[in-house]
Amino acid sequence: MGDTGPTGPVMDRDEVDRALARLGAEHEAIETSLLALQDHAGRRLLEGAELTGTTAERWAAAEASITLLWTYFDAYAGALRTAREIRARRRWSSREDLAELTELLRGDAVTVAGGAATAAAPTPDGGPGRLSERYSLVTLVDRMNQLYAASLDLVVAADAVWSALPARIDLLAAELRRTRELAHSVGVRRGEHPAGDDLERITRTLTRLREQVVSDPLAFWQPAEGSSAPGGGRPDTTVYDREARALEDVRREIDAVLAVRQDAEQRIVRLRDVLSRADRTLAEARTARGEVLAKIAATEVPVVSGPPTVLQEQLAAAAEYRRHAQWHRLSPLLESLEEKAEDELLRARESLTAVTAPLAVRAELRGRLDAYKAKVARLGYAEDPELAEKYEKARRMLWSAPCDLRVAEQAVLRYQHAAAELLGSVPRVPGQGGPVDRTGRGPGA
To answer: Which of 94-103, 160-169, 192-201 has the highest mean pLDDT?
Structure first.
């Protein structure tokens, strides 16, 4: 056909029939999608919910878009119905029918009331829209696809948040209630223990979070970057995850308090034993100090302090907490006491070692003197008068009280030196008046 119109060449019957078949398939697909959107659980929830914030704003716009979608669809269906009626007039459509069909199928022949279109898409200058808009069927399908994708994206996102977060929050809230009951059973309460304060804060946060999720689900939606598919993204669980971790920390703290309740008596008994050993060690150190002052001359002996009464007071407080089942107070006190008690026992042992050091030096010098005497006797020089005199002098110094360790050490060194000369090996003697040799082995030994 060579006739042309405003929309280009007039379509022939085959082209019209193919176009009608394609438009009919599109009509069925669009209608199915719109009905699915209408029946979507997320859309029904949005319609019935008291929305706030971002969701309220976006859903108001989406409702207008869905209304416009149906307006467009009705206009589209009406145009398709008219085209089918024209085509059905005659088996072989006339030139006038084909021209009318061409204009209807290809031209801007579909009229949509301007008020409906303007409600969803205001004019750029913000002024009043036109009374009506005319579209081609192709343009109308494109517009419906855009509005449908945006509306479905919002509905799917809200439904995904509602499906994921409230149930998880409820499960966490149930665990929170169980944890609160357990905490109260061991005395962990608000204002009395940090974990009790944490439980109150978590409770307030979860209550507020659930209210926000229910009224403004889109505030908890993270769109997927680069995704154009409706509902591309995931629920934002940042706040939920943080509170879940906080609750787990509280639970571990309460478990620690429960463990204290189970073994508190044994731990208190062990603490008493450690502090008793520290006291006995300090008492031994005080006794040893008196012995050192009586037996060793010209020696500074450190003063031995008494046991700290604060530890005994804290131990008594721990026993009191146990009697009154104040496990939340007992737990940190026992941990602190156990560390301090071990430190106190170590301090007592170090004090005993420091006090008895002069006696250890004297014992070392005695052992060295006797070892040299045995060596000299083994080699047949036990009766040497010079060696015997030096030995006797050193022995008197070491076995008399009080003993001057510095003078006694020099006497031992002189005996060692004389023995070494006699045996043909002169040792290198440290400078006279030098420090006491703590090795236990003399020159040439």
So the answer is: 160-169
Q: In angstroms, rounded to a whole number, what is the distance separating the alpha carbons of residues 296 and 42?
A: 94
* Residue 191 pLDDT: 80
* Number of C-beta neighbours around residue 175 at 10 A: 14
3-class SS string, the chain: CCCEECCEECCCHHHHHHHHHHHHHHHHHHHHHHHHHHHCHHHHHHHHCCCCHHHHHHHHHHHHHHHHHHHHHHHHHHHHHHHHHHHCCCCCCCHHHHHHHHHHHHCCCEEEEHHHHHHHCCCCCCCCCCCEEEECHHHHHHHHHHHHHHHHHHHHHHHHHHHHHHHHHHHHHHHHHHHHHHHHHCCCCCCCCHHHHHHHHHHHHHHHHHHHHHHCHHHHEEECCCCCCCCCEEECCHHHHHHHHHHHHHHHHHHHHHHHHHHHHHHHHHHHHHHHHHHHHHHHHHHHHHHHHHHEECCCCCCCCCCCHHHHHHHHHHHHHHHCCCHHHHHHHHHHHHHHHHHHHHHHHHHHHHHCHHHHHHHHHHHHHHHHHHHHHHCCCCCCHHHHHHHHHHHHHHCCCCEEHHHHHHHHHHHHHHHHHHCCCCCCCCCCCCCCCCCCCCCCC
C-alpha 154: how far from its chain's center?
Answer: 33
Is pLDDT of 128 > 60? no
Burial class (CB in 10 A: 0-12, 13-18, 19+), 338: middle
What's the sign of the alpha-carbon dihedral 37, 38, 44, 49? positive
Write out pLDDT tens, residues 293-327. Answer: 888 875 677 888 877 888 988 888 988 888 877 77
Helix axes 385-398, 405-422, angle to 10 degrees: 160
pLDDT digits (tens, 9 = 90+) for 131-162: 678 888 888 999 999 999 999 999 999 999 99
Q: What is the pTM of this model?
A: 0.57
Write the single-letter amino acid at 95. R
pLDDT tens for each residue of 367-407:
998 888 888 888 887 778 888 888 889 888 888 888 888 88
- 233-266 pLDDT tens trace: 899 999 999 999 999 999 998 888 788 777 888 8
pLDDT for 308 equals: 80
In this structure, what token pair is assigned to residue 382?
């036990």
- Is the CB of residue 414 less than 8 Å from the CB of residue 307? no
The answer to whether the bond into 166 is cis (omega within 30° of 0) is: no
- Give φ, ψ of 4 to 5 degrees: -130, 160
